[in-house]
Amino acid sequence: MKNLLFQLIICCFFISLLSLVACNSGPVRDRNRVYMPDMGYPLSYSDATDGYDFLKKEGINYVKHPVSGTIYRGESLPVNIKKDLPGDTTQYFLSNSIKNPINSLTPFEYKETERLYLIYCGICHGKNIDGNGPLYNGGSGPFPAKPATLVGDIYYDMFTEGRMYYSVTFGKNLMGSYATLLTREQRWKIIYYIKQKQLEDLAKKNPNDGNKVNNVSKVYNVRANKNGGFPTKKRNLKKL
Asked: pLDDT by residue (tens digit) across 12-65?
């Protein structure tokens, strides 16, 4: 019995040895087909490198710049407004004609937009959007000048949504750009949120004047057209 078991072990050993020799004998064969070549030879190149010369050798023309008129994947609500050059306000004036594509928010979206406002805007403009954020803190904060009172000041109540979008996207005066921190949709939602707070504040102050509350943007747009852009002096806005 032991001899038989020993013989079986020896036979299995020699069969395995012969199999290994047979598989590796002869010239190395060059396979002309690859299963799933994209995984076998991934083209993991970055646009910031110059690793596309091999494409030109193959007769493939590759341009690193995105196709004109396209937007980033996941990005939506494009706006055809560019940042003004230093000393120029052409695009800033044109932004007054842009309408907010967001005309409503679900309860969940409203709470999320409020959260985003508190994170990115509240530090300057305050949780009540009155310009009294932690950086100003009633004059005792690190900011010597009070940020814009977006709710409670008729001058800012009549800012068009497009003008607000320009300021949030490209920055204005001491305010920097938030284009890298908030998507287009998030920026529009925050502007809608602020506009709703402005209307709520106007409704409290003018409970018997619904037209004044509902037509603030309309009044502003009329004055913007008459002045060739938008009013620049607060005293022109005291009376509606």
From this structure: 766 776 666 555 555 555 566 667 666 666 555 555 555 566 667 777 666 666
175 phi and psi angles, rounded to 5 deg? -85, 130
Convert the pLDDT of each residue in 71-87 to its tens digit: 766 667 778 788 889 88
> For 128, which DSSP code?
T
Domain 90-237 sits in CATH at 1.10.760.10
Tell me how far apart the alpha carbons of residues 135 and 234 are, in angstroms, rounded to a whole number. 24
Nearest partner of 125 among 104, 150, 145, judged by Cα = 150
Alpha-carbon distance 79 to 168, whole Å?
13
80, 81, 83, 89: CA torsion to nearest 10: 150
Task: Look at residues 216, 187, 186 and name the one whose alpha carbon lies nearest to residue 199.
Answer: 216
Read off the tokens for 147.
Answer: 């940020």
Query: In the chain, where are the structural domains located?
Result: 90-237
